[in-house]
Batch of 2 targets.
Target 1
Amino acid sequence: KKKKKKKSGYVCVCVCVCIYFTVTSWNVRGIRSQAKKIKIFDYVSRLNADIVFFQETHLLKSEEKSLTDSNFNKIYNSCFNSRQRGVSVLLNKRLPVNIINSVIDPEGRYIIIKVVIYNKCFTILNLYAPNNDDPDFFHRIFSELSDLSADSSLIIGGDFNLALNTSLDRSSKCSNTKPSRSAKVLMDYMEDLGIGDVWRLNNPTKKEYTFFSPVHKSFSRIDFFLSNNSIVHKMSSKIHPIIISDHAPISLTL
Ligand SMILES: *[C@@H]1O[C@H](CO)[C@@H](O)[C@H](O)[C@H]1NC(C)=O
Ligand SMILES: *[C@@H]1O[C@H](CO)[C@@H](O)[C@H](O)[C@H]1NC(C)=O
């Protein structure tokens, strides 16, 4: 607030509005049971999330109405079956948001929503990538985005099922040191579109992981956020402990 008094006696007031919100993404590995749902929402509320991305909800279309919480008044679900996939996006009722458009994958893999938050336009995308190396998935995602993302800032988050940098983002030394085909395709899009891995840009050499694989006895960072390089310096990102699920929740604050 800035006040300036003129001789003539009138007062000029400038008001600065700051955009501040947190997105939390979490592969919950099933949210069908009431007991687990309570635990998950309890943890989400402690993380103070304004926007929540869930992956692997395992919710059936007929069960999607069961995903409710008093903090969230707008909920989008993409369902598949009771053992696999399923993603949801939840918007906190305190967030002043206008929905422009939304795309919901019929196969339970992604949800894209174009929104206006405090007069700023964002295209938010929650994804759950296949765990077999499938570059076509990323081609599909970015072709869906190409029409929607113009004139907006991109926020992409979720379980990408790939490590962008195999030496930094995987704990196992003997694992494949080459990036997967999907990782290469994703990195090409990131370069072309001017978007970056928010956590990595804030932590250039740090090793922290979001997932433990009991099969490979190794940790990896396969859950992350991507956003326009031009706004990454206004963001911070956090990896929380691996809890309740086999993945850690991650947060991004703009
Ligand atoms: C991965 O990180 C290492 C260590 O910082 C770096 O030398 C290497 O160039 C990175 N690789 C890629 C593909 O970014
Ligand atoms: C963010 O990146 C997308 C994809 O390149 C682009 O369409 C959009 O205009 C960018 N937004 C800003 C604010 O730079």
Target 2
Amino acid sequence: MGLISDNIQSFLEKIPENVQLIPISKTKPNDMILDARQHGFKVFGENKVQELVRKYEELPKDIQWHMVGHLQSNKMKYIAPFVHLLHGVDSFKLIKIMNKEAKKAGRILNGLFQLHIASEETKFGFSPDEIFGILDSREYAEIENVRMIGVMGMATLTNDEKVVSKEFKELYSTYRDLKSRYFQNDESFKEISMGMSGDFEIAIKEGSSMIRIGSAIFGERHK
Ligand SMILES: *Cc1c(COP(=O)(O)O)cnc(C)c1O
């Protein structure tokens, strides 16, 4: 592995321009993020609130932070003042807390509906019907400080490309359904966050607009 900025640059060269790369810097030190930032890369994702808040406080404020992990609603208040996009919105309760904390912070918070597409039971996420239920509800109509701008999903961890490809197809198709039923005139509803270091090529083939890449840029993580 070279410098982080080199790794990001070579990643950008191998993906289409309409796919946004979100480098996932979790567990990695500030100096790696600073190296990238010095070369103009200013978007990063984290999956733990405490680490995200610490890095936000320690690093320059022009970095755009994405929260990609599961989030407990009592932690929303810590990130609401600065986070750019929450990829893992997986309950109506969380949307309501987002709305409340965003209002307090005087902001609009962007979110993605996380769908449960993998066969593993441990991965979080909605079924399509649950999202339709939320969007049809009277309570959702009163949400003012949350902007849902797309979907996110994680495929099963397997070497079987057919399985991964089928799951990403499902996610894409749910995105299309949501778009045509609820967001047809909403230009901001356009994101499909799918693809990680091990499956981003399949994800891009299946219509991803955002890939979340950790180890392929920053190196393996040590537990
Ligand atoms: C860690 C993480 C990633 C990046 O994983 P890699 O396999 O290292 O690329 C992407 N998305 C989420 C939600 C993560 O927690």
